[in-house]
Amino acid sequence: MRRRLLLTLLLAGSAGLRAHPEIEVALQRLNAGIAAAPTDAALYLERGKLYARHDEATAAEANYLLAAELAPNLPGLARARGALALATGQPAEALELLNRAVLRDPIDATARVFRGRVHAALHDPRAAVADFDAAIQLVPLTSPELILERAALLPAPEALRSLDAAIERLGPAIALQLHALALEESLGRTDAALVRLDRIATQSERRESWLKRRGDLLLRAGRIAESRAAYASALAAVASLPAWLRDSPESVRLTAELTLLSQKNS
Amino acid sequence: MKLPPLLLLLLLIALVAAAPGQAAPAIVRGPYLQSATPTSMVIRWRTDTTEASVVSYGTVRNQLTSVVKAEGISSEHIVYLGGLKPDTPYFYSVGSAPLAVAGKGKAGAEDAPGRPSTYAFTTPPVAGPAKPTRIWVLGDPGTKNDVQRAVRDVYQKFTGKRATDLWLMLGDNAYPDGTDTDYQKAVFEMYPETLRTSPLWPALGNHDGKSANSVTQSGVYYDIFTLPTRGEAGGLMSGTEAYYAFDYANIHFVCLDSNDSDRSPNGAMMQWLKADLAATSREWIIAFFHHPTYSKGTHDSDKDSDSGARMNDMRAVFLPVLEQGGVDLVLTGHSHVYERSWFIDGHYGKSDTFSAAAHTKQPGNGRADGDGVYRKRRGRVPNAGEVSVVTGSAGHASAKPVPLNHPVFVVALNEAGSSVVDVDGLQLNLTFLNDQGEKRDWFSIVKE
């Protein structure tokens, strides 16, 4: 078994990796380390991660397997193997490995995120949400990406509540607000969408594009008079820009578009 | 034997001073300046033991009459100074007591032996109006070696008494793994003087990413830096330190995470970028991130297998949005060379799809003493031309020959060095200084 793995490792030596001098240096450093300490499982894990980062899944897996043979409980190994299995489209295997990783270190937020993604891939949104929740609780500052990933697993009303909770915790990050705005629109809740849009506009130094979007939203909802008012506000916002911005082609184009929209709907 | 009372007293003082646990904590990192705004500054430093986090400051060197103390005690100190005056020099000192100068190998202030205990910074001016601005740009600096030192020393000689208003690190700030120890040697012991006088704005590189995770906002990079997540330094709120914006005078800076955040067209980073670009009223837009949109140096932007297609993503997904949003200058690293593009727009494919006729907005090298500076209409003009610069050799150039044959570049050099960006009103100048102190490239963009 071990001999076969070593052979695999040799065969898996990636021409792609060797093409990049910087990676070659890292690989040489690890190869030298392994030559000096061939039973150091951590070095195989590190080499596997290097291959994984450069999309060399076969070589990565071979290194992970060797690390597992040397030290089955090596910290970080189950997580790395699980992440690789997920990336290579093997969610069932990934789940088994990540269960092991979480069991070993229940406060490993990254392992929780990976396992959440595995659950999502296995069409188990509740389990995915539970893992994302655990990850969010484990770190002081969560990225908007994780919040959006979690919200995407929920029905729209529940997703909105989760976004609002995140906005309360992290602040009104633009990506979260825009997603909430889209959800309000998808639910046909125009007034709620307008409130969110206004909140976004107040954060922005330049408000004209948000005011135009307000007009568009109202127009789609059949609220013609209000949409005209929004377009007029957008025109006023453009007019209030400093001359060098107001007279620039982008502003001139927007002014023309807003004027046309106002006229079309008068 | 009977000792005279005065000698006894001196002995007693010496014993007390030498007693273990009685010495004032020594600074082993910093201080360093973060998240500068016209009215605030974050000052961070590390001590060898825990103590209160106190900053004394004022506008007169010997009158540090304002004092801010953070809650609790720590060895990792983060103090927020608010209510400052824009464009104003401040003096400051850190620590709850007179601080010991750290010994060699601790603070390791390589460029500042005999560190004084009072430091100085100048707050950024109010965003909007122009002010001559000097920006030092370091790509892939963190080798900890003599080349990194030479690049640093060349810049310091070049800038002389001209203050560095801010500096950018384009990722791979600390090799090989972006660990705390790597950062200590490659950043904190390498640039102590600049760190305590000029705010540093970093981007995440792939080597930093080995010890950091953007999704969970955890790891060394995120522990070390305090970056604006709420749009507090200008621009819109990103909600993450992985990508952020800030303003300085008439410049809007956008930092992207090309390594670890979602790079998809509908991802959070893209949504934020589009909204942020639409919201700014600054004259200049400078974007910086780690992975280059084009390169034929130590990395090849034509190969999707290289760096997990990140270069392709930044070129094909993000560059169109940046150019449409009016970006003037794109600064990247990752490839350990210097490559500088023509004045371009709309080239989002592989190198064999580049056409000078279709993708250059103005021919020439952009030099006043050459083919003439690049000229751009003032105002927010989508797709009006930008210059993409790969300046990833602040720590080392390639030891082996590299192709350097991407047709988008007018200058390509396999030389160590760093870039200096000077913005003065409606003119932007970039100079590449190699590690021998030679100006190896320069160009200007003028708005009119």
Describe this structure in words.
The complex is a heterodimer of chains A (266) and B (448). With 266 residues, chain A is mainly α. Chain A is 78% helix and 0% strand. Chain A has helices spanning 2-11, 15-18, 21-36, 41-53, 57-70, 77-87, 91-104, 109-121, 125-138, 144-151, 156-170, 174-186, 190-203, 208-220, 224-239, 243-246, 249-264. In chain A, helix 7 (91-104) packs antiparallel against helix 8 (109-121), helix 11 packs antiparallel against helix 12 (174-186) and helix 13 (190-203) runs antiparallel to helix 14. Chain A starts with a helix and ends with a helix. Residues 10-16 of chain A have low confidence and may be disordered. Chain B is α/β, with parallel strands linked by helices. In chain B, strand 21 and strand 22 form a beta hairpin. Chain B is globular, with a radius of gyration of 23 Å. In chain B, the strands form 5 sheets. In chain B, strands 8-7-6-21-22-23-18 form a 7-stranded mixed beta sheet, covered by helices on one side. In chain B, strands 11-12-13-14-19-15-20 form a 7-stranded mixed beta sheet, covered by helices on one side. In chain B, strands 1, 2, 3, 4 and 5 form a 5-stranded antiparallel beta sheet that branches. Chains A and B meet through helix 3, helix 8, helix 10, helix 12 and helix 17 of A and helix 6 of B.
